[in-house]
Every structure is written in structure tokens, then in C-alpha cells.
Automatic annotation (TrEMBL):
Residues 20-378 form the Beta-lactamase-related domain. This is Beta-lactamase family protein. Signal peptide: none annotated. It comes from Paroceanicella profunda.
Amino acid sequence: MSNAEANAADPTRPRNLKSLDAALDAMVSNGSIPYVVAALGNSAGQIWSGAAGERASGMAAGGDTIFRIVSMSKAVGATAALILADRGRLNWETPVEEILPDFARLVVIENDVETQLRRPARTKATLRNLATHTSGLAYEFWDGAVGRYLAESGMPSIVSGQRAGLLYPLAFDPGTAWQYGGGADWLGLAVSAIDGRSIDRFCIEEIFEPLGLTSTSFELNATSAALLGDVLARKENGELGSSVLNLDPPASPEFYGMGHALYSTAPDYLRFLRMWLGMGSLDGVRILSEATARDALRNQIGTLRIEPRSTVFAPATSDLDPMPGVELSHSLVAARTERQMPGRRAVGSAFWGGVMNTHFWLDPTADLAGVFMTQVVPFLDGYVMRDLEEFERLSYSLMI
């Protein structure tokens, strides 16, 4: 029985939402995605959830399916820092090196031809720069100079879980540009340095437990491992096949990088997003003041904008252009839309995704949040992004 047929048999399910179930089934049946779990909610509660396809052979995807959410961890790490800021313990303008002295060792690559030409940074990166991807750090997936430096130096990637991987060179002077990078990993370390607890313990005690995120974790146990979805890769002919890439968060790392460390489910992450729709509060539990939450969702990078970047590692990611033609800034939490998208999210909406194509958006104006999760590489795969847009448009047509 398909997802749509099963839900059609449920008389309590609102009839107008059953078209969402049918849409998910169609996405799987036409071969664009292997499986998907999606959910919608507002500040008052979960509105709808659905799933289609098999997360593994003979195992249906569902609300309990565990996903490697990877870069969707960044919003959680930013929330940890905001909790400390709310308590007066973290100042966003503090230079990173004052809390984490090793950051002062990072130098700027002078050009993208000869990676050995490096110089000291002309500006100091702040904690705000870490949260907004304006610190100078850049992932090697979209920056050839950084990638060449890693290859020449033998330095591990920042996603390796090794502390040595933190010492990337900077791609630009802090505060002068936006470029997607590993600032969230340093931000998580700053939270630990200020608070005294490890970042995993901090997140568990200050975010997961208060918000009831019972299926979100830094490590898999026997139960969650059995519910983990398979990862598939898009072939050149558009079909899906086995992925040879291992992009899983490293187990038992030297440090948990808040840029990529988490596993979660669609219902759990929706609860996290609903806290943001509630401006720091979920179901009567407040973890951030309303003022802090509202400020965090504002544009935090001034006149800088997120500009498209070409991929230099196509097996893992497509070009970095998540919303073609849309002006994008960045909040303390995630990327931010700077214009109304007809039939879709409003100005000031936050959004991002993980490398295996788990995606979310958060629209305070419409009081609507959505999650759309599968496990397919490359990141921003065209088929997945088409399906995500279809899901979002259908959601707004039914909700607004």
C-alpha cells in the first residue's frame, strides 16, 4: 500500500493534506528520490507528516528514520551559542582568538594559484563571523585553493573530527565576504571553552532534553543504527545507485564539529524549528528569550550576500546556489531570504540543508516550518531540489 493509500484510509487526516502524501509517493515512484520523510508545523504544533519509499531494502521510511543531517547541525550549534549570549556569557563581537588562541595561527591564502603564498589576516574574526560564514574559513568542496592546500600539506579535512583539521588557512580576510565553511566547528568549541561542558553535553542538557528531541544524537546506538537510512548517489544518467562516498559524521571524534556532527529525524528537527517559530519557546518551554531569538533571525552580514560558487568536488556537491536568482543574506542561525518568493517563503525566512539532502525552512511571517529529508548525494542535487520546491509550493497552497 502506498503512502497516499494508507493515509487516505485514515478518516482523521485532513482531506486537503492528502495531496502532500500523494506528492511524496510520486517523487519516489518516478525515481527522482529513493525515499523521503517530510513534515510541516507551526508555533502551535505539528500540522502534517508523511513518508514514502524504502530507507533500506524492505524497510519503509517513516517518522523514526534516522538521517545524517550533517550541516543542519549548524543551526543547533548556533542555538547553543545564543543560549550563552542570552545569559550574558558570550559576546558576538569577541575575537575568536581571545577564547580559542589557536585561531590566531590561521593565515590567509594570498591567491588561488599558489597555495604556499600566505599572509596574516588583516582583520580579526569574531564569534559573529563564525556563525555567519564570514570568518574567512571555506570548505574545500567549493574552494580550489583550500582543496589544494589540504592535498599539499596532508592536513585532514575539518569534517574529519580531528583537531588538526581545524587549522585550515583562511580564504579571505574575516568580515570581507561570505563563503561557506567550518566556522560552526570553531563556534562549538567556543561554547565549550566558555561554558566548561563539552559541546555534546551542552546540547543534550540545554537543547535536546528541554525540547524533547529524543531521536537527535551525536552518536548512533544499536537502535538508531538499525533505523539509519541508506545513502544513494545520482549517476550521470540521472538514475540512483550506491554511493562510494563516506560522508557520515565521524564516530568518537577528537571533537564534535557543530558543522556536521548530528543525526536526527524529521519530527525531532521540526520540533527544533517550531521553537524558532515560537521565538525561543516550544510547548511552554523557553530556551531563548524572545528578544534574542528575534535578533538572531535578522540579517547579520550587512550588505554582504551569499553568492553562487562552483563545485570543485562534484561527487559530493553540486554548485553552491541553493536558491537561484534569490537575494540571500545570513542570520546567526542559517541563510536568510531577502525577498518574497511568490507561492513560497516570505522575506526573512531561514533555511539550509545537509550534504545528503536533508533540508529545512523556517518562515516566521507565515508561522510555517518544513523539513524534507532524504539521503542522496550530491548536495543540492537537481532532482531533489525540484522535489523540495514542489513540496514547498504545495505546502503553502494548502496552508496559507
